[in-house]
Amino acid sequence: MRELMVRAMYCEMLGYEADFVYIHAIKLAQQGTVLEKRVGISIFLKQNMYYLQDLQSTNLIEVCMALTVVSQIFPKDMIPAILPLVEEKLSHPKEIIRRKAVLALYKFYLIAPNQVQHIHGKFRKALCDKDPGVMMSSLHIYLQMIKENPASYKDLTGSFVTILRQVVGGKLPLDFNYHSVPAPWLQIQLLRILSLLGREDQSMSELMYDVLDESLRRAEMNHNITYAILYECVKAIYTIHPKAELLEKAARCIGNFVLSPKINLKYLGLKALTYVVQHDANLALQHQMTIIECLDHSDLIIKRETLELLFRITNAQNVTIIVEKMLGFLRLCNDDYTIIDLVGKVAELAEKYPFTIWFIQTMNVVFSLGGDLMQPDLPSNFLRLFADGSESEEQDRQLKLYAVDSYLAVLKGDCSHLPQRFLQVISWVLGEYSCLKEDVDQQEVIRLLKKLLEQRGVSSETRSWALSALTKLCKGPGYAELALELAESLSSSLDTVLRQQAHELCLLSQDSQLHARVLPHPAPSDNLEVDSSLSFLDGFVSDALAAGAAPYKPPHQRQEELSQQRALSLEPYGLSLPVTMSSCTLTDRQSPTFLSMSSDLSVLCVCSANTLMLEGVKRVWGKDGYIPQKEPSLTPAAVDEPSDVVQSPDQQGAAETSLPEPEPEPPQLDQEKQQLASSLFVGLGSQNSMSLLGKTEVAVPRFRRKARQHESASTSGTSESSSNSSHSSRSTTDSFLYGGLLEEEPATPIQNSYHTLNSTSENEGAATVSAKEDKQANSSQILGKSIVSQRNCSKSLPVAFPHSSDSMVLQLPSELQELPHSDVVSLTSDPHLSVSCCRVFREDALLLVLLLFNPTETALRDVAVELSCEEPLMLNTEEYGKLWLSISNDVKQNLKLLTGGGDPLRATLNALKDSLQLHIVDIIGSEGIVACHLLRGGPCLMHCRVHGASLAVWLRSPLPSLPDCLLYHCQRALQEH
Amino acid sequence: MQFMLLFSRQGKLRLQKWYVPLSDKEKKKITRELVQTVLARKPKMCSFLEWRDLKIVYKRYASLYFCCAIEDQDNELITLEIIHRYVELLDKYFGSVCELDIIFNFEKAYFILDEFLLGGEAQETSKKNVLKAIEQADLLQEVNYSLSLSLPHAVFMV
Fold it and tell me: Signal sequence: where (chain B) (predicted)?
């Protein structure tokens, strides 16, 4: 067995897989004699597992081996199991065990620092161990910990200094000497720790000066190991708070390094110099000649280090020559890592001194050498600098002309070997600035770009850059033909981005006005704002919804619904498509057979299955959201990648063309559709209200930002309907309000307030449930590219707002007659008073006109109308619990707790109950549960807990916007108290 | 220290020790790359190399290359001395070590390395102590071995 193991091990060493022997190795290691253990252990060093046994052994060597294995690469999750045993070994009588245990802990610290946090005290003990070996091992841990957090170990500086002094003074046993230098490893470790502790800390540094001086003095023997110590010393001296005397000595030391004939020392000298010139650039001057020599050294590593040094001492005078040297090195170099690094550095230098022809030249070389390896932000930085330009107009122009010239020259040559990034930069610059140059024929530029576009081996990203450059250039009627040709050839391209751009090009070249607006010249340098909430599409969406389209749902919700459906298992034939709510709502009303039919249809066909007359309604929302149609530039840019487009600098050029370009038709089209929809749905409204409500609510998340605005601005009675109405059919809103009115009106208390009717109706602008349908506003916003729409919803309506008009004859006031309005419907009447209602659609609002008719002789003094949509939901605790679990929309928030005597929770909840008509289900200890529901809508559950001085409220409701709305009113109610 | 490799002038790997977790594939790739780079260097060149974000310190002893990877802040010279000390240890243990010693007694070479470096850090720098530890372990192994050999015999005899 052992023989076989050894062979397996050899196989493993040679790089072959021998995993299958591991298990045998474990067996061997566990049962066998020491020899077998050793064989077993070495074979699966990387798999190491159960050494618990060995760690507990009394045999010194077995313990040693176990610790050795433990401090190899050890699996993280095994640490807790083994940690106590290792910890125990820290107080083992034998120093070799202690030392290994400390190193094992160091390894654990590296793997999982938080798991060994509790034994920091033991580390200190190890530091004070009487055996220097153990102390030395503990330094590894301290170095690591001090690296992470120097501040918390400052108190140890004194001890470290003492230790170093002892070491340097030769107080350690001779065993520790290495080539008659006392414990060099220990010294270096200590020096590193000290430099970390003394960094930017004068008081700490002062403690060290003496010992550093002594180290420098002692390390004079001519051996590698003393150089190692010297090097570390120098680094420490330059890291800590400076002291002139020491700096001088250190500088001399560096001189010795640099001048040394030994190449290793020279390298280290350069490295030290690189480190030092940050503090003192003059030092480099002393060694000018050596540096120059090193620059032409045959060893690339030396050269590389010299360039690094030069990079640090660059200034306005020498930048040209240094960059030249660096580029020279770049040409020779073939290591990717170095290229990336150097290219970055050259670009950094060049960008410090832009606006010169030299800058352009350098960057050109950088792009062609660095190629596609370089950091992706380099080209975009360059373009930004280039576009921003300098202060001097003329210089700027010169520069741009130069760039255009040079790029034209590049393109005229063979550009098949050029890196893609370079080609992209060229395309952008040509597209943007080639028109500055009068003497160059635009046709020529276009020809070159076209050549680039058709060239083989050009990536599609580059193609799209080139194409957008072409789009910029193709203005005016002269290019229509060319544009058409291009668009045609690309319209069958496999790349959708290219196809889209080709289409845009085609449209833009026909309409020069649009061209000028979409691609203004020069390109605006400030960032384009992108409306990621897509509010400019709201109008479109709401029309589509009004026309009966199914609302958009985020994928997770669809998943949820899908799983719900599965649980119901209503369908005999499982449908793999997510079935939307609309078909769910159908289940309530339709027969099962109809359901199976309608659910087989895709989302939108449900509408037609619904037997509503919806011809001409387009398929707008699909499985993954909006289905782009007709306006390719409007939707893909905005819907698919709203943030990507502008944020990623790579695509900036593309973004400029693909940003929303409205087409003239949509607004009109929308209005037509809107009218069609409203006329279609007027009669259907009330019977449809439930299902439509359910659907429209679901659509809210997408437009949440906007919906919230309404909610915060409107009152409890109106907020729900307003958020509905902003994206659903008006009929829904209406019928919903109807419901509210019908139920609430009889209960209307006639209060003693001093509003006169007319004035209120004027002041309040009537009951404005601002159902905004601002198509026109949308389109103009898009054009202006300031897409973030600010809606003025600041008007806050009171909970009760009376408004009415003189109603002897049931007729609307004249100023409202012009507007589209519904029939006047009588809501309620008794001998004293009859109330009618009428809805008026204004452009920016839905007016709700209440007509009061007073047949009696007595004068009607004051009227207060209370619109309310919510009412207490009577539940017991158990039902509440069930309902709570079945609802998924969560909102959490902290509310103010009323502190007016008694139980604050009870007081607060009662206050809420009084003002908001909530039902307090139960109060248990410091927690309370409350419920309410919309008149025709879903419930809203509220879970409150006293949390310090505030009330943590957790709301759940199937309607996403209801909790927010309720919360708002809770806040207001509590404020009023 | 991240890892240590020993390879011959022909590019054959003789010993490898990794102190950071890497997949076998990566290890192979790194080894191949490094062996190529180091072998291509001329004898008079600097013993340090920049490779990826690591620093490679290598030294050639006879036909064997000893090669260590350290982080950028680490001291290159002291790493050279670590290599040197390891060679000294091998030399002392085997008595004028040669490549064949390491090939045939690779486990000893590993043991010595483990005794000298633990978790990538120098653990015991004294030559005497390292060798003492190794000898003790060897002795224990011998004793156990002879015991285990004699035990079946004894049973058989009875």
Answer: none
Cα A838 → chain centroid: 48
Which of chain A's residues have a Cβ under 8 Å away from the Cβ of B129?
96, 133, 175
Q: Is the dihedral of CA A43, A45, A51, A54 positive or negative?
A: positive
Is this structure's pTM higher than 0.80?
Answer: no
Handedness of CA A110, A230, A263, A312 (dihedral sign): positive
Residue A235 and residue A212 in contact, taking contact as beta carbons nearer than 8 Å: no
Nearest to A640 by CA among A554, A540, A532: A532
Q: What is the pLDDT of residue A348?
A: 79
Query: From CA A690, how far away is CA A694, in angstroms rounded?
Result: 6
Alpha carbon distance A103, B119 (integer Å):
7
CA A666/CA A781 separation, integer angstroms: 14
Decide if B128 touches A, using CB distance below 8 A. yes
| Predicted complex ipTM exceeds 0.85 | yes
In terms of pLDDT, which residue wins out, B37 or A758? B37
CA distance A195 to A242: 11
Distance CA A592, CA A570 (A): 8
Q: How far is CA B135 from the centre of its chain?
A: 17
Q: Which helix (H) or strand (E) holds A940?
A: strand A939-947
Give the mean pLDDT of A98-110: 84
Structure tokens belonging to residue B91 = 């030399």
DSSP assignment of A878-932: HHHHHHHHH--EEEEEEEEPP-SSS-HHHHHHHHHHHHHT-EEEEEETTEEEEEE
- What secondary structure letter does DSSP report for A809? S
What per-residue confidence (pLDDT) applies to A846? 66
What DSSP state is assigned to residue A578? P
Distance CA A767, CA A803 (A): 7
Q: Nearest-CA distance from B158 to chain A in Å? A: 23
CA distance A133 to chain B (A): 7
Q: Which of A169-178, A455-464, A589-598 has the lowest mean pLDDT?
A: A589-598
The model's pLDDT over A879-933, given as tens digits with 9 standing for 90+, comes to 777 777 777 777 777 777 776 666 777 887 787 777 777 788 888 777 888 887 7
Query: Which has the closest alpha carbon to A797: A759, A772, A758, A768?
Result: A768
Q: What is the DSSP string of B7-23?
A: EETTS-EEEEEESS---
Paired tokens of A748: 């209307």
Enumerate helices (H) and strands (E) in chain B, giving the number of each. 5, 7
Task: Indicate yes or no: CB of B20 within 8 angstroms of CB of A71.
Answer: no
For chain A, positions 58-77, list CB contacts with chain B under 8 A. Answer: 59-61, 64-65, 68, 71-73
Q: What are the structure tokens assigned to A584, written together?
A: 């769910």
Which amino acid is present at A651?
A: Q
- DSSP assignment letter at A154: G
Q: At a CB cut-off of 8 Å and minimum separation 6, what does B80 contact? A: A224, A228, A264, B47, B57, B59
Q: With a cut of 70, say whether residue A164 has pLDDT above it.
A: yes
Alpha-carbon distance A857 to A174, whole Å? 121
DSSP state of A551: P
Q: How many CA atoms lie within 13 A of A585 on its CB side?
A: 20
pLDDT interval class at A863 (50, 70, 90): low
User: Residue A34: pLDDT above 70?
Assistant: no
Q: Among A552, A929, A962, which residue's Cα sits nearest to residue A719?
A: A962
SS3 A872: strand
Whether residues B77 and A338 touch (CB distance < 8 A) is answered with: no
Instruction: Give chain A's mean pLDDT.
Output: 66
The verdict on a CB contact (< 8 Å) between B77 and A59 is no
Contacts of A22 (CB under 8 A, 6+ apart): A43, A44, A47
Which secondary-structure segment (H or E) carries A177? strand A177-178
Please, which residues 92-111 of chain B have a Cβ atom closer than 8 Å to chain A? Answer: 106-107, 110-111
Could you tell me which residues are beta bridge partners of residue A871?
A933
